[in-house]
Amino acid sequence: MREYIQHSYLLNTYPLNTYLLLHFPILPIFDHMEIVSYNVNGIRAAISKGLPEWMEKRNADVYCFQETKASRDQVDCEVFEKLGYKHFWFSAEKKGYSGVAIFTKLDPTHVEYGFGDKAYDNEGRIVRCDFGDLSVASLYIPSGSSGEERQAFKMKWLDYFHQYAKKLSTQKSKLLICGDYNICHKPIDIHDPVGNKNSSGFLPEERDWMSSFIDSGYVDTFREFNTEPHQYSWWTFRANARANNKGWRIDYCMATQPLRNQLKEAGILPDIKHSDHCPVWVRL
Predict the structure, then answer these.
(1) Fewest beta carbons within 10 Å, which of 60, 194, 202, 284?
(2) Cβ contact 106:61 at 8 Å
(3) In this predicted model, what pLDDT tens digit does every residue of 73-88 receive, in sequence order?
(4) Sequence-distant (≥ 6) Cβ neighbours of residue 124 within 8 angstroms
(5) Is beta strand 218-220 parallel, antiparallel or unpaired with respect to 174-180?
(6) Burial of 61: CB neighbours in 10 Å, binned 0-12, 13-18, 19+
(7) b/e 62-98 (16+ beta carbons within 10 angstroms → b)
(8) Cβ neighbours around 178 below 10 Å, total
């Protein structure tokens, strides 16, 4: 998949590059890079359903996981390490709740855990790995479906995150924010837009927020390549929804505009079933 040229090789073979490599770290050279985002709805349960075996077959460069529902010390990661993945976790303070992680075959040049704001970091909702000038984040936006109080928290959280993303994109122009956004953006992204018009995840204010977020400089990478309806990433466990494809597209790989020309493909994998979500992916 990847064709790396190691720094040591460059230093020995091309001495004129020595100064640049030592003083300006670069991303390893590759023919393409695939990033997969997946809300696993409990990584321990997903492991028991064959997640590592599927990861080995898919062989993506980076996996962004959400809703891990575990801390690093609760998971035997040897199976992932044998596949060549390094892993970086940011878990919720509450056990068995929320949590995000990034598993990567590439060595990050920097890892950032959380927002750096205790008021927003206790639920473990963002972790970011930098690979040279490319920054990849795994994001898990709160759900508001449990009631008015939680919906109000979600809207406050969205405002906070948007400001954070604006600031971050001035520092990291090539930014990919992958994860469960818990929002369907447009009617095409939900199986029943009329019946769900008052449902958390498809409320007008949430959809307006998503439009504002995209308009501030992001690309919905899936819609960059696919404009067809009935493309979903989450299905309720109720009423045989997945078999009938009555779903919601709430998982995204959002790229900043400077990455637009590097996008090669993006897609959804509805047949992968370790979770009530399915993986979404983008290839650079």
Answers:
(1) 194
(2) yes
(3) 999 999 999 999 999 9
(4) 90, 91, 92, 93, 97, 98, 99, 100, 114, 140
(5) unpaired
(6) buried
(7) bbbbbbbbbbeeebebeebeeeebbebbbbbeeeeeb
(8) 29
Spans of all domains in the chain: 1-31, 32-283
Task: Please name the residues in contact with 23: beta carbons below 8 A apart, sequence gap of 6 or more.
Answer: none
Angle at the Cα of 10 (from 9 to 16), degrees rounded to 5? 145
Q: Is 234 helix (H, G, I), strand (E, B) or coil?
A: strand
61, 130, 180, 189: the active-site residue? 180
**Other C-beta atoms lying within 10 Å of the C-beta of residue 211:** 12
The three-point CA angle 250-254-259 to 5° equals 160
Beta bridge partners of 176: 136, 255
Query: Helices marked H in the chain — which ranges?
Result: 7-13, 18-23, 43-48, 51-58, 78-82, 118-121, 148-171, 204-215, 221-225
Encode pLDDT of 75-129 as tens digits.
Answer: 999 999 999 999 999 999 999 999 999 999 999 999 999 999 998 999 999 999 9
pTM for the whole thing? Answer: 0.90
Instruction: Respond yes or no: is residue 180 known to be catalytic.
Output: yes
Q: CATH fold of 32-283, please?
A: Deoxyribonuclease I; Chain A (3.60.10)
Pairing of strands 251-256, 174-180: antiparallel
